């Protein structure tokens, strides 16, 4: 039987509706408007399009939002001062410095300068540590892993006691999603295995997975015969494998492939995310969720 397709586009739209209501209520009852600043250094086209999408989402939800564009020759010191300015600004509850930064700037230094209470990306070591401890310590969840967990839960999969296999050990996806899924509580409590480039037998581990999360950045790495029948497959890979001309605009658009061979895998899996339209739309939505949470915490609202 063909798998159910988990539409990140639809789930993200649902969550954004919920956040829009919550934002309007916060404004009406508590006179608080969630504030987000996105800082973009230089003119990397992919970064411009990510930041534009983040600002558009913030705007649509009714946030106070600032797009702060800086030239690519900004000094590290000036960028650190800029972060400090927003750390002190009470209208701002979330600060996002778009990555990558130019080579002359130490990315780690800049990310570590963001006030952990405004770190809506959840990249600061304090928030990474809080996530590792779990429970009440957790303030923000990193956006892509949080989106993955939400997709699994909303698709109706039981995570407690499930064998979760994560392919990839990046700091942005692999390590944090493994950490989230092994915590006690709703949408987690799983038995987690992380496989990576040093793993001897990828196929063996993937075949055991009730929930398979693939974030390797290798097009079609996971073969359909590696998938357990009925498994939930979350494909985080967005690999550009070429270009085609859009019929609508006549302009070149990238051809994207996931880390899983979707067409073949959907005949075996119980549910699967497409690429694009799976995990991607969830990342920005979870950034918005973190910003609302930060605004509530700053006002002492649970
Ligand atoms: N560049 C690509 N993805 C991200 C992200 O999630 N956060 C930031 N800050 N930069 C990025």
Quaternary structure annotation: single chain
What does the radius of gyration come to? 20 Å
| CATH level-four homologous superfamily name of the largest domain | NAD(P)-binding Rossmann-like Domain
Beta percentage is 15-25%
Please give the share of residues in helix.
Answer: 25-40%
Question: How do the strands of the widest beta sheet line up side by side?
Answer: 1-11-8-7-5-6
CATH topology of the largest domain: Rossmann fold
Major beta sheet, specifics?
A: 6 strands, parallel
Helix-and-strand structural type? alpha/beta
Average pLDDT, all residues = 97
Distance N to C terminus: 44 Å
Question: How many individual domains?
Answer: 2
Shape category: globular
Low-confidence segments = none
Task: Characterise the protein shown here.
Helix content is 39%, strand content 18%. It has 2 domains: 30-117, 3-Layer(aba) Sandwich (Rossmann fold), CATH 3.40.50; 143-281, NAD(P)-binding Rossmann-like Domain (Rossmann fold), CATH 3.40.50. It starts with a strand and ends with a helix. Helix 2 (45-61) packs across helix 10. The protein has a 6-stranded parallel β-sheet with strand order 1-11-8-7-5-6. A 3-stranded parallel β-sheet has the order 3-2-4, sandwiched between helices. It contains 10 helices and 11 strands. With 302 residues, it is of the alpha/beta class. The mean pLDDT is 97. Guanine binds at residues 50, 96-99, 121, 143.
